[in-house]
C-alpha cells in the first residue's frame, strides 16, 4: 500500500518511493544541548518517532539519525548572536573551553535521551554529536572551496548563494534586501562583508575557542554539521529529512545548497516539517520565556504519555496551542483508553478490516487524529469480541506508542520505574555517592515525584 507523505519540496502529498526497496533512511535535526528541550521541541521528535513507527508497521527497515548539536548553533538561525553552547557556559559559570562545553552538552544530552524515553520514543539508530564530526565538516567545506562556492570574510568562511542558482529550493529564501532590511521591514545587522544577504557561514573564526582548521581556529557553522553527518550516516541522497517549520527558510535551504553544491547530488528526496506547538498563539520558544518541559508537565500532574496522546489528536502539519486544560482533557481520554484495554482478555487476534483502515490513516501523511478516532471506534464496536479488541488496539499501538497494554495509573500511584530509581538512589546514598544520588533525585523529579528520606527508608510523593 502507498504511503503518502507531504513533501515541502514539491508542496504536495506524494507516494513514498524508497531509494532501496524495503528500507528507509531518515534524518531529523536534533536538539542544541544547551538547555532542556521544551515540549515544543519534543513535538518534533514525537512526529519523527511516529513516522518511523509508521514505516516499521508497513514492514520497512528504518535507519534513523538524530544529530546532537553540541557546538556552533548561534542564538539566531542566521549568522548573528552568540553560540548557544558558549552562552550556556556563561550561564552556568563554567570556564570557556571545549572540555567544559563537552561536560555541559553531556548533561543536556542525557536529559534529552531521558525525555525521549519518557515519551516512549524509540531510540534512534544513531545520535551523532556535532563536536565529534568536525573533520567531516572540514572535508565538506574543502569540497566547496575546491569548486569556488565559498569566500573568506573577516569572521569566517561564507557560502556564496549567488553562485548556487537553485538556492531556496524549499521555499522563499531568507528575504533580506541589500539594504539590510528583513522581510518584515525591520532593520537587522547584516555582515557588510557578505556578498549577498542570504550568504551564510560554513566556518566561524574564533581565536580563543574551537578546533584547528585550514582557515584557522574556530568552529563549524551550524548548517554544515547536518549536511556532513547525514551524508556520513545515510549517504547522499537519502530518503527523508525532517525538522520543525522554522528550519525551512534558512537551515534546510542552506543544508541543501551546500550539500548539492559540494557533491552534485540531491541531499534528501522528501522534506517533512512539523508545525509549531504554540502557547497563547505564540511559538513556544526558550527565548520567549514560558517554555514548558516534561518536568513542568509532571509538576502539573500530566504524564509524558498523556502529552503524546494529546499530540496524536492533532495533525503534525497543524499548529497546536498548548494549555494545561487541553492536555488534562486528553489525559482523561487516554486513561479511559488504557482502562478499556486493561479490561479486555488476552488471546484474541487483530481485526483485519480495522488494521487496513488504520494503515490507510497512517499512510495518508500520518493522519493520527483519524488513527486515534479509529481506536475509539474499535472500543465502541459491539460486534468485535473483547479479546480481539485488545489485540487490535495493541497492534495499533505499534504506531501510537502509547503503551496501551499497561495498567492505567490514577493520580498519586507510583510507577514501578520511579520506585526502582528511588531504590537505586538509596544504594548510591549508602555508598556515599552523593553525585549519583542527586542525579537520581533529579530523574525522579522529572517523572513527577519527590523523594522524601524517612529514617531508614524513603517515601515518594507526587510533585504538585
Ligand atoms: P533546536 O534545539 O532549537 O534546534 O530545536 C529542535 C527541534 O525543535 C527543531 O526541529 C525545531 O524546528 C523544533 N522546534 C522548536 N520550537 C518548536 C515549537 N515551538 N514547536 C514545534 N517544534 C519546535
Ligand atoms: Zn539540521
Task: Give a topology summary.
Blueprint: E1 4-7, E2 12-15, E3 23-28, H1 39-57, E4 61-66, H2 84-91, H3 98-118, H4 134-146, E5 150-153, E6 156-159, E7 200-205, E8 218-220, H5 222-234, E9 238-244, H6 248-263, E10 268-274, E11 277-279, E12 282-283, H7 294-299, H8 304-312, E13 320-322, H9 324-342, H10 352-363, H11 368-380, H12 386-400, H13 416-430, H14 434-446, E14 449-454, E15 457-462
Helix pairs in contact: 2-3, 4-5, 4-6, 5-6, 8-9, 10-11, 11-12, 13-14
Adenosine monophosphate (AMP) binds at residues 29, 31-32, 40-41, 43-44, 243-244, 246-247, 274, 276-277, 283-285.
Explain what the structure shows.
With 464 residues, the protein is of the alpha/beta class. It folds into three domains: 16-145 and 220-278, HUPs (Rossmann fold); 301-400, Isoleucyl-tRNA Synthetase, Domain 1, CATH 1.10.730.10; 411-462, no CATH class. Helix content is 41%, strand content 15%. The chain contains 14 helices and 15 strands. It has a four-stranded parallel beta sheet with strand order 4-3-9-10, with helices on both faces. The protein has a four-stranded antiparallel beta sheet with strand order 5-6-7-8. Helix 2 crosses helix 3, helix 5 crosses helix 6 and helix 11 (368-380) runs antiparallel to helix 12. The protein is globular, with a radius of gyration of 24 Å. The model is unreliable at 176-187 (pLDDT under 50). The structure holds adenosine monophosphate (AMP) and zinc ion.
Amino acid at each position: 500500500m502507498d504511503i503518502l507523505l507531504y513533501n515541502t519540496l514539491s508542496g504536495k502529498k506524494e507516494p513514498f518511493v524508497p531509494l532501496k526497496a524495503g528500507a528507509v533512511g531518515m534524518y531529523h535535526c536534533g536538539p542544541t544541548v544547551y538547555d532542556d528541550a521544551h515540549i515544543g521541541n519534543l513535538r518534533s521528535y514525537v512526529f519523527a518517532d511516529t513516522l518511523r513507527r509508521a514505516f516499521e508497521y508497513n514492514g520497512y527497515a528504518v535507519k534513523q539519525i538524530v544529530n546532537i548539536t553540541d557546538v556552533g548553533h548561534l542564538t539566531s538561525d542566521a549568522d548573528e548572536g552568540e553560540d548557544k553552547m558558549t552562552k550556556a557556559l556563561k550561564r552556568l559559570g563554567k570556564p570557556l573551553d571545549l572540555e567544559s562545553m563537552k561536560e555541559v552538552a553531556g548533561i543536556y544530552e542525557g536529559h534529552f535521551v531521558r525525555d525521549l524515553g519518557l515519551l516512549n520514543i524509540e531510540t534512534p539508530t544513531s545520535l551523532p554529536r556535532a563536536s565529534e564530526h568536525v573533520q567531516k565538516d572540514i572535508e565538506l567545506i574543502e569540497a566547496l572551496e575546491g569548486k569556488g562556492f565559498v569566500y573568506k570574510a573577516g569572521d569566517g568562511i561564507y557560502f556564496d548563494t549567488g553562485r548556487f542558482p537553485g538556492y531556496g529550493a524549499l521555499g522563499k529564501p531568507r528575504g533580506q534586501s541589500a539594504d539590510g532590511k528583513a522581510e518584515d521591514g525591520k532593520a537587522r545587522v547584516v555582515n557588510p562583508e557578505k556578498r549577498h544577504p542570504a550568504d551564510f557561514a560554513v566556518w566561524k573564526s574564533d581565536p580563543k575557542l574551537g578546533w584547528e582548521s585550514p582557515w584557522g581556529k574556530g568552529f563549524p557553522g551550524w548548517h554544515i554539521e547536518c549536511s556532513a553527518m547525514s551524508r556520513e550516516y545515510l549517504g547522499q541522497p537519502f530518503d527523508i529529512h525532517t525538522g520543525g517549520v522554522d528550519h525551512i527558510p534558512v537551515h534546510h535551504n542552506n543544508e541543501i545548497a551546500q550539500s548539492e553544491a559540494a557533491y552534485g547530488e540531491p541531499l534528501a528526496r522528501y522534506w517533512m516539517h512539523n508545525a509549531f506547538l504554540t502557547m497563547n498563539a505564540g511559538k513556544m520558544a526558550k527565548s520567549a520565556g514560558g517554555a514548558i518541559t516534561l518536568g513542568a508537565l509532571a509538576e502539573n500532574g500530566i504524564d509524558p504519555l498523556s502529552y503524546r496522546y494529546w499530540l496524536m489528536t492533532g495533525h503534525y502539519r497543524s499548529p497546536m496551542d498548548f494549555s494545561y486544560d487541553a492536555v488534562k482533557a486528553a489525559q482523561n481520554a487516554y486513561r479511559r483508553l488504557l482502562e478499556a484495554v486493561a479490561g479486555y482478555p488476552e488471546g484474541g487476534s487483530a481485526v483485519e478490516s480495522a488494521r487496513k483502515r488504520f494503515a490507510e490513516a497512517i499512510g495518508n501523511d500520518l493522519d493520527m487524529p483519524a488513527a486515534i478516532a479509529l481506536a475509539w471506534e474499535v472500543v465502541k464496536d459491539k460486534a468485535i469480541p473483547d479479546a480481539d479488541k485488545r489485540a487490535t488496539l495493541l497492534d495499533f499501538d505499534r504506531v501510537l506508542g502509547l503503551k496501551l497494554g499497561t495498567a492505567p495509573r490514577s493520580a498519586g500511584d507510583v510507577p514501578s520505574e520511579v520506585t526502582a530509581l528511588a531504590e537505586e538512589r538509596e544504594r548510591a546514598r549508602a555508598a556515599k555517592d552523593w553525585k549519583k544520588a542527586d542525579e537520581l533525585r533529579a530523574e525522579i523529579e522529572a517523572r513527577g515525584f519527590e523523594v522524601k528520606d524517612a529514617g531508614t527508608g524513603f517515601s515518594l510523593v507526587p510533585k504538585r
